[in-house]
Amino acid sequence: MSSPAPAAPPLLRFDRIQKSFFGVPVLQGISLSLDQGRALGLVGENGAGKTTLMNILGGNLAPDAGRIEFAGLPHQPRSPLEAAAAGIAFVHQELNLFPNLSVAENLHLTAFPRRRGFPVIHRALLRAKTRALLEQVSLDIDSDTPVERLTAGERQLVEIAKALGIEARLLILDEPTTSLTDLETRRLFDLLERLRGQGMTMIYISHHLADVLRFCDHIAVLRDGELVGSGPASAFNATRLISLMVGRQLDQVFPGSAPPPDSPPVLEARRLSHPGIIDQVSFTLRAGEILGLSGLMGSGRSELARILFGLDPFGAGEILVEGKPLRRPRPIRCLRRGLAFVTENRREEGLCLEASIADNLLLVALRDFAPPPARWIRRRPLQAAAARIRSAVRLTPTALDSHPVKTLSGGNQQKVVLAKWLLSQPRVIILDEPTRGIDVGAKCEFYQLIHDLAARGTGILLISSEMEELLGLCHRILVLRQGAIRDELQRPEFDRERILRAALHTERAP
Amino acid sequence: MKGAWLRRQGRRALASEYLVLALSVAYFLVLLPWLPELAHPRNLANLFSRMLPLLLVAMGQTFVLIAGGIDLSVTAVIGLTSVLGASLMTADGGWMAGHAAAVPAGIALMLLTGALLGAANGAAVTGLRMPPFMVTLTSMMFLGGLAVWLTQSQRITGLPPAFLALGGKPACAFGLTLGAALFAHLLLSRSLFGRWLYAIGHNPRVAAISGVPVPTVTLAAYVLSGISGACAAILFTGRLETGSPVHGREILLDVIGATVIGGTSLFGGKGKILWTLYGVLFLTLVDASLNLMFLSDFAIRMVKGALILLAALIDALRHRYETA
Ligand SMILES: Nc1ncnc2c1ncn2[C@@H]1O[C@H](COP(=O)(O)OP(=O)(O)OP(=O)(O)O)[C@@H](O)[C@H]1O
Ligand SMILES: [Mg+2]
């Protein structure tokens, strides 16, 4: 890493930034600076204020007090557009693409290339520019593909391409790897390294501390809106970061593993097929077992889960729940049979963002608290159950039940999604990337929660892009590639290389 | 700082549940010195009797709006059910003229027709996935036309006194509306159906994944709206002592306007029966007072139009604050 002349002023300087929501302070006087061409890692627990600080920098929010200097000038953007014009690109934690528009249109939304002298979009130029941008992020898709047909990981890359398109000097990445597989994460870091080499300054927010430690030059730690530590990355290690973030020591991430149960099957799939999506998938999940599904993006992991829960059309094959066939799965039917599905995409499928925290928490379990025939809701027990589940997932206690769920930080929103399904006391729970955006402390608690659920006899199907999570938690792992199961590993055989090999289909792992 | 305080208070007032009720009371009190007739028992009674059917229909509309839909066909439902009920009961050539069970049968027919028409709207919206605006606009035209065609533009008189008393006697009409309002309120706030309705209005996809039977619940909202139209038809028919296809023809904008003024959102997911009550109160009050000032009909329409536009604007503003 070559450092610029020592006298050069920092590119970015925060000076005592403060912000509160509803009288609750979220940022309490943050001062930080960042040099040109460096990457700053910003870490902290869910709700620590990371996204809020970036929203202020990116023109989404105005600070209550404090100043920002960017490139030597005072920086007070009144809108994201102004921030972009100043050279700041923001890849949001929640992706901000228009699903109905094509990749090319999304990339050029603010400035379409025109035909000279006419207010008409220059299609050919648009495609060419889009291809060039997509190439930079090594994404091989047609520029006319509507974004809704892309997977979460591909959308993430499109977001980054969009940032590159505005020729930013500062790139903010708010948890960019949450929906990427290992391979794509590696590809992303290659890209980020290259950009840094070209002088791009970056702020990188993540709960993957290893990534932050490896990639960033500087690290800043937020806790409850205060800067509790900052300095060169070499001055930190994971343990120190965690204790700064959480304010205590965390000695063990994964709970000790119980032996695989020898119990009756709760969920069986027999030769499930859907042309072009999954191919002859059969597996058995036992009560109390944690079964992992590994595979690359597009390998059919999520699709398999969605077919099981009736969100995607059913092709051929057979599903059995507790030994009895489940025909034509639909969410309602699955729910009645004791299935639960924590979907991957919390904004579109997990939460009613405008509705209150309580309403979201209770949505799934509501029917159990409204006895037929009249179906009036018994409110007392319902509220008690909500309070219980809130503390079980350690949802932030500062948020009132009546607040809209969208005012929660990303990680806390994810906890609400989890909680609402747990409240229905499922026999089988399918988890699709359940720890997306959750901080280390909460992750730890969440792993314990899964572990306890399994110990009490719930069958768990865990889909995750995080190898650590699968290796640490599962009794058994299935590896999918191109819609078919390619390998099955029992816990004693767990082997990162072997899983990758099966997922990639190469003789040697790359 | 002062500006910020004002803005905060302004937002708070906008968000307050009782804003519209407070506005109604203030409006009444401010106007009283200039327009003492407003408090005259006769005028109050008149105001009251006009409120009731409007409230009934607006409550049905509230259900549909919360689910994220809209029902423009209610006024035609009123006309058609009024005509059908009257044709069954009327002493001059009714299908059940003079029969002892004519009145209950007539009321049953009206309610059933309202429910069926609502179900037809709901089925088109949920089953065929047509936009509610289009579905109910066309059914308004069709049903309105059908009602006129059935009667050949004749008014149907000679209705049984028992029926007239039910819809026309203020106490009965009040009892009916109050009962309906209580039921609607409990249904929305305390029942599984009500909670599901809000979820659907917020995000139908999330609701479906969470196990809400979205089509059934949505359909039920339209059915309730249809039934509310039939109830209003009972009041109109009883009070005016005739079955006619034009009953309620004028109130469509008032229905949606009052609901939105009350605070129910056109964007779905938000609304309460109590809010609708306040909205209806306010709009009827304005209407009555303008009438007493002998303003011309267009002037009244202009004022009411402006008010409803304002309410829709406030709805949009609230929506923006909340999504921002
Ligand atoms: N619009 C808002 N209204 C009210 N409270 C808010 C709003 N936005 C954020 N907050 C609150 O501010 C705090 C900080 O949120 P922020 O999103 O910055 O956290 P974060 O550090 O990004 O967490 P995560 O890792 O979960 O994404 C949270 O407690 C959140 O509930
Ligand atoms: Mg965040």
Tell me what the structure shows.
The complex is a heterodimer of chains A (510) and B (324). By secondary structure, chain A is an alpha/beta fold. Helix content of chain A is 32%, strand content 24%. In chain A, the strands form 4 sheets. Chain A has a 6-stranded mixed beta sheet, sandwiched between helices. In chain A, strands 16-17-18-13-19-20 form a 6-stranded mixed beta sheet, sandwiched between helices. A 4-stranded antiparallel beta sheet of chain A has the order 2-1-4-5, covered by helices on one side. The longest helix of chain A is centred in the middle third of the chain and has 16 residues, at 182-197. The radius of gyration of chain A is 24 Å and the shape is globular. Chain B has 324 residues and is mainly alpha-helical. Chain B has a domain at 52-249. In chain B, 76% of the residues lie in helices and 0% in strands. The two termini of chain B are 22 Å apart. Classes of the chains: A alpha/beta (510), B mainly alpha (324). The complex binds adenosine-5'-triphosphate and magnesium ion.
Please state the structural category of chain A.
alpha/beta
Low-confidence stretches of chain B: none
State the strand order across the main sheet of chain A: 6-7-8-3-9-10
Assembly type of the chains comes to heterodimer
Structure classification of chain B:
mainly alpha
- The tally of helices of chain A reads 17
Task: Lay out the secondary structure.
The complex is a heterodimer of chains A (510) and B (324).
Chain A lengths: L11 E10 L2 E11 L4 E6 L5 H8 L7 E6 L2 E2 L5 H6 L2 E4 L11 H5 L15 H14 L15 H14 L4 E5 L7 H16 L3 E5 L3 H7 L2 E6 L2 E7 L5 H9 L18 E10 L3 E9 L3 E6 L5 H8 L7 E6 L2 E2 L5 H6 L2 E4 L3 H5 L6 H6 L16 H14 L17 H13 L5 E5 L7 H16 L3 E5 L3 H7 L2 E6 L2 E7 L5 H9 L6
Parallel strand pairs in A: 3-8, 3-9, 6-7, 7-8, 13-18, 13-19, 16-17, 17-18
Antiparallel strand pairs in A: 1-2, 1-4, 4-5, 9-10, 11-12, 11-14, 14-15, 19-20
Chain B lengths: L1 H14 L3 H13 L9 H26 L7 H16 L12 H25 L5 H20 L9 H8 L1 H21 L1 H11 L1 H6 L4 H27 L11 H11 L10 H20 L4 H27 L1
Bound molecules: adenosine-5'-triphosphate and magnesium ion.
Magnesium ion binds next to helix 1 of chain A.
